Amino acid sequence: MSRTEQRKKRHHLGSLALAAAVTGALVAPMIPTAAVAAAPAGIDGEGIAAAPYEIDSAADLRALTEWINADSGARAGSHIDLTADIDMSGEAPLRGIDTFTGVLDGQGHTISGLVYGDRDTNNGRLSLIQRLDGGTVTNLTLSDLSADNATSSGFVAGIAIHSVGGTITGNTILDADLSATSAEKVGGLVAEADGGVISDNFVDATLAAGEMPAGIAAYAKNATTITRNLVSADITMAAPGGTGGEKGNNAGMIVGYPGTPNSSAFTANVALSGSIAYEGKIDGFVGRIVGYTAYDGWSASDNLAST
Fold first, then answer.
1. 10, 54, 97, 239: which has the highest count of C-beta atoms within 10 A?
2. Which of 244, 174, 240, 226 is nearest to 202 (CA)?
3. In angstroms, how far is CA 100 from the centroid of its own chain?
4. Could you write out the three-class secondary structure of 105-173?
5. What does pTM read for this prediction?
6. Neighbours of 205 (CB within 10 A)
7. What is the pLDDT of residues 46-64, one digit of tens each?
8. Which residues contact 307 (CB under 8 A, 6 or more apart)?
9. Confidence check: pLDDT of 237 > 60
């Protein structure tokens, strides 16, 4: 079966499963008492929960990300709502947000044709957000998403490179192609998760990393909750794991590598379909749910995987 046919099959299966899924309740974010700052020209709102910045075009998306990056200390806590679908097809690659502590609510809208880029060619990391620090991304669909870090050592992820206590819930990554075969980590949603919650998301993607690709999180440690996510992905690990296995050369449909210290819980996730291309020992290093299993402290329960 060709890669195009595999994608179509994954997309069809994922759409059926997603339509039947029931998402969990969201935790309401804290409401700031004052506006973050005046938004760029043409963008409505005050950047607070009661009056979020509203974006509805490719120009708005680019302007707001650049504006936040210009003073992340004052602007990273912005509340942002998508008020329409946004087509990024043919647009220049998006650099993304450097640090985000606020709330990005897609309100069920789709950003399509988005390409991550415009970072350092040696170690630039490609994602919508570089560091999600206690912030939230919710109700957002990214369709036909792509990022290729070629010979760079920078990680790649669908939503955030580092999620530190962040909340990523109710999002869809659809027909994505994320690659960093010279880098360690690629995650359908995050490259590295350190605490926080990743729940009720759907990932349909082709993912390739040098050492640690995974459908949801390439790496997760501390008290990270990963629950009720649905994954349909074709995953490739470029570096061989060896006949005896290699710690750090790991792949999983949900989590590639549970790090240490770890009290994470991986529950009620579904690896719906797809494949893992990998050379080396499988047991304990590559899995339909979790890749590397030598470290303790974390738990996995009520997960399902197709055969």
1. 97
2. 174
3. 14
4. ECCCCEEECCEECCCCCCCCCECCEEEEECCEEECCEEECCEEECCCCCCCEECCEEEEECCEEECCEE
5. 0.89
6. 29
7. 999 999 999 999 999 999 9
8. none
9. yes
